[in-house]
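Contributing new records

If you add data, match the layout below exactly. Sequence lines come first and carry their own label; structure lines follow with theirs. Keep one chain per record. Anything else will be rejected by the validation script.
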Amino acid sequence: MRAAHQLLDAPPRILDDSVIVTLLGKQVTERIHQTRDAYQAPERLALRAHVVLRSRFAEDRLASAVQRGVTQYIILGAGLDTFALRQPDWAQRMRIVEVDHAATQGTKRDLLKRAGLAIPTNVQLASVDFEHETLREGLMRHKVSFTEPAFFSWLGVTMYLNEAAIDSVLQTIAEFPATSEVVLTFARADGPQSPFDSRAAEVGEQWLSYFTPDSIGAKLRGFGFSLVEFLTPSEAEAKYFRDNENSLPVPRRTNILSARI
């Protein structure tokens, strides 16, 4: 979806990520162009808008966090995230840690090699097997500092976890110093079922956890997050969609938030 945004949507784009096109390669680029009509279906447009919006919002919040002294960027479930490969000058002073399963990171390393892209020196791919260790144990094994403030990006993941696993991650993040922050997405428990939920179930990746803004806000405050802010559809429209001439729709519901310790 990030690659399709670069290839099919008119500039100015919500997220400038030309690196993802390079990383995925010519074959994927050709496939997107060949099936461009399918990418213009309402459901695909809505998903594309959500995917690029959540990354842009997280990266904007990261930039603000760096200004107040955050020194570590930890991407949970990093997958093929490309921020580390297109990082601006202000990010190069940070330590960037991409957390994911070893198999996923192996795929990413193969794609990087094929595309002729090198992992920057301030970036670490930290493999964590959550079936055998907690996030805290994994971060400690990879020598992440719990005494330096950190910014966490946790996008498109919580809905696949049970509530106990979500609580464990939030407890770990809450152990970091004041000014640390997390941006996360969540599945809504109220209103109509998301079509993305049905699609995930069809491919065997059932969504497990749902929240209302009030319930997840209360959970975060219970773990010690003092500032919880939701990106509302009206705020998203004003900040990210209003000046864009592409056909991506403004999100209808709030499902992206930031929370600061």
